[in-house]
Design brief:
There is one protein chain. The protein is α+β, with helices and mostly antiparallel strands and 325 residues long. Among the domains are: 150-220, Sandwich (HSP40/DNAj peptide-binding domain); 225-314, Sandwich (HSP40/DNAj peptide-binding domain). 29% of the residues lie in helices and 18% in strands. The protein contains eleven helices and eleven strands. The strands form four sheets. The protein has a four-stranded mixed beta sheet with strand order 6-7-11-10. Strands 1-5-4 form a three-stranded mixed beta sheet. It has a two-stranded antiparallel ribbon with strand order 2-3. A hairpin with a 2-residue loop joins strand 6 (225-227) and strand 7 (230-237). It is elongated and about 100 Å long. The termini are far apart.
């Protein structure tokens, strides 16, 4: 994954509005609906989604700028000397206070086991400070090394809303370097995990291979916000569309459609499009909930102001809402 700033084409000093604007431009240019059958465009679209997931989130953007996470949102390893390393979860599990070691500590293994886990891939099992490695000592050679199951691998799979609806697959890269397209069951939500048997780290001395635990991360979308299996969309309306009604184009994950707006529509009204949401575990799809948002021109309009003053004098009314003394 390239640097998310480079992907979106913005500087590190870019504002939130600049980042959102850049993402919208790329999403529009490379959206699958506009580039059917173009795998490169689909890759650019997914790449832009992933970059926006980092930079569009204030906390994640800060973590990336400080070097705490990489361009895929994965934590970066930070070494702080022996004391800092001993505070990691790996050393805390060894059984001693603040991650200190107790050889033979129950449940966590001893100092030998932990060093062997860390250093065992460098041409053989590590030797401990006392000069003994696995298999050393009286009787060890007769028994031979004990097979040890490989560790589970934790993998992040990022999917777009379009992928959840249309192909139901997520691409992941395993510890072996192999790339797989993993089927994402209908109804999968952000943060849900999928276990791939035997796709984790290899075992030692003939032990079984661990599993790969795939965590699904749903990329933020420029238009739609998931709500269980429903999707929410804010739809801008001009003043005359709200007053006169008519048909307006509405984006969906299945392509744009025409939506009929009744005359005298109020801002904040929510309309429902059945079956235009996300797949659910029941085999169907949720709905698209469209909230109308009346918008005025960006620049002052003298004719509109004149019309509103005349209307105010001829047809005054009070907006519906709570009564105040």
């Amino acid at each position: 994954m390239r640097d998310p700033y480079s992907v979106l084409g913005v500087d590190k000093s870019a504002s939130e509005a600049d980042i959102k604007r850049a993402f919208r431009k790329l999403a529009k240019a490379y959206h699958p609906d506009q580039n059917a059958g173009d795998p490169k465009a689909q890759e650019r679209f997914a790449e832009a989604n992933q970059a926006y997931e980092i930079l569009g989130d204030k906390e994640k953007r800060g973590q990336f700028d400080r070097g705490e996470i990489d361009a895929e949102g994965k934590p970066r390893f930070q070494a702080h000397g022996f004391d800092g390393f001993a505070d990691s979860d790996l050393f805390r599990n060894a059984g001693g206070p603040r991650g200190g070691f107790r050889q033979g500590a129950p449940g966590g293994g001893g100092f030998d086991d932990i060093l062997n886990d860390i250093l065992g891939g460098f041409g053989g099992r590590a030797r401990t400070a006392g000069g003994r490695g696995p298999g050393a000592g009286a009787g060890a050679g007769a028994r031979g090394p004990v097979p040890k199951r490989g560790a589970d691998a934790h993998v992040i799979a990022r999917v777009t809303l379009e992928q959840l609806v249309h192909d139901g697959k997520a691409r992941v890269t395993l510890p072996s370097g192999k790339t797989l397209d993993v089927s994402v069951p209908a109804g999968t939500v952000d943060g849900e995990k999928i276990r791939l048997r035997g796709q984790g780290h290899p075992g030692d001395y003939g032990g079984a291979t661990g599993d790969a635990i795939v965590e699904i991360r749903v990329a933020r979308h420029a238009l739609f916000t998931p709500s269980d299996d429903d999707l929410r969309l804010d739809l801008p309306l001009t003043l005359y569309e709200a007053v006169l009604g008519g048909k307006v184009r509405v984006p969906t994950l299945d392509g744009a459609i025409n939506l009929t707006i009744a005359p005298n529509a109020n801002s904040g009204k929510t309309m429902r499009l059945k079956g235009k949401g996300l797949p659910n575990k029941q085999g169907g799809r949720g709905d698209l909930l469209i909230t109308l948002r009346i918008t005025l021109p960006d620049e002052p309009d003298e004719e509109l102001e004149t019309l509103m003053r005349a209307w105010q004098e001829l047809r005054p009314y009070r907006a519906r809402g709570p009564e105040f003394d």
